[in-house]
Amino acid sequence: MKLIENYTNGNIVSNSKKRLPVYDPSKGEIISEVINSDEKDFEQTINSSMKAFENWSNVTPLKRSRIISNYKVLIEKNINEIAGVVSLEHGKTLEDAKGSVIRGLEVVEFASGIPHLLKGEFSSNVGTNIDSWSLKQPLGICAGITPFNFPAMVPMWMFPIAIACGNSFILKPSEKNPSCSIKLAELFSDAGLPDGVLNIIQGDKNVVNMILESKQISSVSFVGSTPVAKYIYSQSAKFGKRVQALGGAKNHLVVMPDANLDQAVDGIIGAAYGSAGERCMAISVAVAVGNIADELVEKISNKAQTLKVAPWTDSKAEMGPLISSEHKKKVLDLIDKGEKEGAKIIIDGRQIKIQGYENGYFVGPTLFDNVTEGMSIYNEEIFGPVLSVVRVKSYNEALELINSHRYGNGTSLYTSDGELSRHFTSNCKIGMVGVNVPIPVPMAFHSFGGWKESIFGSNAMHGMEGINFFTKLKTVTSRWPGNIQKGPEFKMPTN
After folding, report:
1. Is 280 a catalytic residue?
2. Reading across the β-sheet that carries 6-8, which strands appear in turn?
3. Which end of the chain is more exposed for a tag (fewer CB within 10 A), N or C?
4. Which entry of 142, 165, 180, 280 is annotated as an active-site residue?
5. What is the 3-state secondary structure (H, E, C) of 369-407?
6. How far apart are CA 385 and CA 321, in angstroms?
7. pLDDT digit string (tens) for 423-475?
């Protein structure tokens, strides 16, 4: 059986004899094993990263950018292979996997502009004959802990920017789909990245704890569920690390009576059921305002029932399986709860079976109507193909619903009213907002991050937020000897 190991100092290596299974979620079968790294593996990774940082931090930003530009070209040439690895171990459709690789690639492209992005500021004569300027300098060893749902895109939100800024980087991918990380690292080496600048360490929570407790690691980046994000944040703070930890979501899409209903329904279908709902930006709550509700539910129901649920190898597949049997059980349990708590189930995806893939982790599109705030399916992040429709009487009620929820990752409003949309974008307490756009994921040159319990730490990801996170600011104040005043001063310096 294939064994997926660590990528350390440009080589495939491992010491631990412990193994974890990797499944094909379409079939429910073990297809490979991944190493569960031990302390010796971790020490080897740290030593490689420390040595690489000493040299890489002194490489000019322009030379770094050229290697990153080479990397972009290699990813483009190998995009089909990378997407295939993602689909095999995650289950998402091939086109969806390609799209996620491209969104990660955009961050690589952004990072290739690092000479401009690292420019500091200069002020002449801040005091008499005194100049002042700022420098952005690398942190040291940075680490990333990434989720199963985007094994290519989310790591590429982190390590290209960290490396472009002059840091070395240790990536701990999800043990559920670890192969993609190895391919990404190998391509970076092929692009000219020195050995040890990007290392991959495989494993479970024990490896996470080693990262959090390591004195040599300066920062931790994380994307995953809110309980784990809180843990990452608090533990990182205990050990003096800089941290950006993105957590869970419960994204609402508001449909006003004046909205283009067909556009809204198309947006909802793709955002709710794409990637089987395993996206932190998935729409899991449709908020129907006023008399639009009946028609909205009918149109969503009609379209959702036509979706083709199939393994990624089927070129016509629109939605694949969930990642694991454990996660499938969690989603099914929440659907059961929704029904018991009084929501009206319009489409029930619990009994779906795919011929030839009966053991796969499939859940069909599921639609609830008449969902209320007190229900589990409204409050909890389901992370599956389950859409809840909440009916409200007014825009103000819809806005209050969104603002009172503990998550604040993304939201969207469908309307033809410009004044209303301006009010919504200004007054919703959410980090990423769309107007007639169902999934408002920012481009790489902006930053990705939510509010409230959807993020812990002061920095969002990529864009200038990423540059600021992976660098420390140094400010220099300088005056040359011929201008120095004789004798000591005992007052606060002023202009």
Report:
1. yes
2. 11-13, 6-8, 198-200, 168-172, 141-145, 217-223, 242-246, 455-456
3. C
4. 280
5. ECCCCCCHHHHCCCCCCEEEEEEECCHHHHHHHHHHCCE
6. 10
7. 999 999 999 999 999 999 999 999 999 999 999 998 999 999 999 999 999 99
- The pair of three-digit structure tokens given for residue 54, joined into one six-digit string: 């000493």
Of 2.40.30.10, 3.30.43.10, 3.40.605.10, 2.40.480.10, the CATH number of 3-247+454-476 is 3.40.605.10
Residue 65 vs residues 236, 461, 463: alpha-carbon distances, Å? 30, 19, 16
Residue that is written with structure tokens 């004046």 in the block:
258
Which residue is it, tokens 């949309």? 421
Q: In the structure encoding, which two tokens stand for residue 347, read together?
A: 């489409």
Q: Taking the C-alpha atoms of 160, 161, 167 and 170 in order, what is their torsion angle to the nearest 10 degrees? A: -50
The tokens 């040439």 sit on which residue? 77
Q: pLDDT tens digit string along 384-421?
A: 999 999 999 999 999 999 999 999 999 999 999 999 99
Ranges of beta strands (E only) in 148-295 are 168-172, 198-200, 217-223, 242-246, 251-255, 283-289
pLDDT digits (tens, 9 = 90+) for 20-75: 999 999 999 999 999 999 999 999 999 999 999 999 999 999 999 999 999 999 99
Structure token pair of residue 317: 């597949």
143 in Cβ contact with 159 (< 8 Å): no
Minimal CA–CA distance to 346: which of 368, 321, 364, 326?
A: 368
3-state secondary structure 306-348: CCCECCCCCCCCCECCCCCHHHHHHHHHHHHHHHHCCCEEEEC
pLDDT tens digit string along 96-109? 999 999 999 999 99
The pLDDT, as a whole number, for residue 454 is 97
Q: How is the chain split into domains, by residue range?
A: 3-247+454-476, 251-435
Assign domain 251-435 to its CATH superfamily. Answer: Aldehyde Dehydrogenase; Chain A, domain 2 (3.40.309.10)
Please tell me the distance from the alpha carbon of residue 368 to that of residue 377, in angstroms, as a whole number.
9
- What confidence score (pLDDT) does residue 136 get? 97
**Rounded to the nearest 5 degrees, what angle is found at the Cα of 133, between the Cα atoms of 132 and 136?**
155
**Residue 296 is which amino acid?**
L
pTM of the model: 0.96
CA-atom Rg of the chain in angstroms = 24
Please give the structure tokens belonging to residue 280. Answer: 């932190």
